[in-house]
Amino acid sequence: MRIAFLVDRFGRKFGGAEAYGVNLFEILSARHDVTVIAHEFDHDLPVKEELIKYRSFWPSWIRVWHFARQAKKLTKSGYDIVHSHMYGGAGDIHVIHVAPIRYRRLFGRSLLKRLWVWCQPSNIAYLLLEAAAVRPKPGRHVVAVSPWLRDRLVDAYGTGLPLVVIPPGANPVDFSPDVREHVRHRLGWAPTDIGCLLVARNPLRKGFAAVLDAMALLPVSFRLAVVGAEPDVHDYLDAHHPELADRISLIPPTSNVSEYYQAADVYVHPTLLDSFGMAPLEAMAHGLPVVVSGPKHCGFGQYVTHMHDAWVLQDPEDPGEIAKGLYELGLSTETREHLLRHSALLVQSLSWHVVAEKYETLYADTLRFKSSP
């Protein structure tokens, strides 16, 4: 099968939605002829590449509009399936990773505010491109990455969408004591330290501030590594908790996140808004117990149960609640082993091979429509 995959940036280091695409097509590229159409690449998969260029100074809505226009031209012929993570009408399978623009800008707003939204060219572009992506047509499928996101799409567009929920996957990772020892040494963690980990493209939006406040409540043996830290994260640490600097390691975005999961003892993810949240699932795949926001704030929270397979936060802004979870999972062997036993079963049920098979089922359904008279 000839598949075109549309995505702005193709590489694990760019974020959770981008890693979703790489992990999925790592499997699909072994069975199909895959061409990735993107603006930026950072991967080692055996796929063809088509580069869409744009000027860095262009506003984001111009870049998105330009990508949609070019992608439609490039996929007009030559492909059996067009699988898209982008706005615009070029796609048979459209995967939605974040709350829809229509929901965020229009849902529950007053008439005056809705009219103001339609007065701004950027909003008009986003709304029209999103509508083109989800517009029902024979053979098209719209995929939400969590039940929470499916509900937001229904709120925004009604029940007429051809919606399917396919969450991200994870595969169990073989643990390497050598990798763990090497990375912990590099981070300056002693063997008796409790290493906590947060992985995020934008840590400040995933609860970094609350985690810092929690770290201030924990013993000095608790250390924190933050992977994905840009300069604004350094600035926040310096301004709000300079006394914690020797306990916090800030690591820039990297495609080799696995070594940090292996070095850590507990994963923490007190996000206030995540349509799914791949990082906690990946942490479980690495054998880590997880402190994570509940379903009100995180789509992954709908898949876990407090004290069964995760430590689920009722209030992700409460540093005391976060500190309690980190302390318990870091020091209580009994609690830790109980959660790990059950989280391993969750990882098995959400493997990337299962995810790939679900997409191939959608592809087959789309091809039936395309081949019918």
Compact description:
With 373 residues, the protein is an alpha/beta fold.
**Structural domains: how many:** 2
Shape: globular
Q: So what's the oligomer here?
A: single chain
Q: Would you tell me the overall average pLDDT? A: 95
CATH superfamily of the largest domain: Glycogen Phosphorylase B
Strand order of the largest sheet: 5-3-1-6-7-8-9
CATH class of the largest domain: Alpha Beta
Radius of gyration: 21 Å
Structural class: alpha/beta
Q: Please mark out the parts with pLDDT under 50 across 5 or more consecutive residues, or reply none.
A: none
CATH-scheme architecture of the largest domain: 3-Layer(aba) Sandwich
Helix and strand pattern: EEHEEEHEEHHHEHEHEHEHEHEHEEHHH
Measure the end-to-end span. Answer: 20 Å
Instruction: Specify the helix fraction band.
Output: 40-55%
CATH topology of the largest domain: Rossmann fold
**For the report, how would you describe the main beta sheet?**
7 strands, parallel
Q: What is the number of helices?
A: 14
Number of strands: 15
Give the percentage of residues in beta strands: 15-25%
Give the SSE layout.
Layout: E1 2-6, E2 9-11, H1 16-28, E3 33-38, E4 40-42, E5 48-51, H2 60-74, E6 81-84, E7 93-96, H3 101-106, H4 111-117, H5 121-134, E8 141-144, H6 147-157, E9 163-165, H7 177-187, E10 194-199, H8 208-215, E11 222-227, H9 231-240, E12 248-251, H10 258-263, E13 266-269, H11 278-285, E14 290-293, E15 311-313, H12 319-331, H13 333-349, H14 352-371
Parallel strand pairs: 1-3, 1-6, 2-4, 3-5, 6-7, 7-8, 8-9, 10-11, 10-13, 11-12, 13-14, 14-15
Helix pairs in contact: 1-14, 2-5, 8-12, 11-13
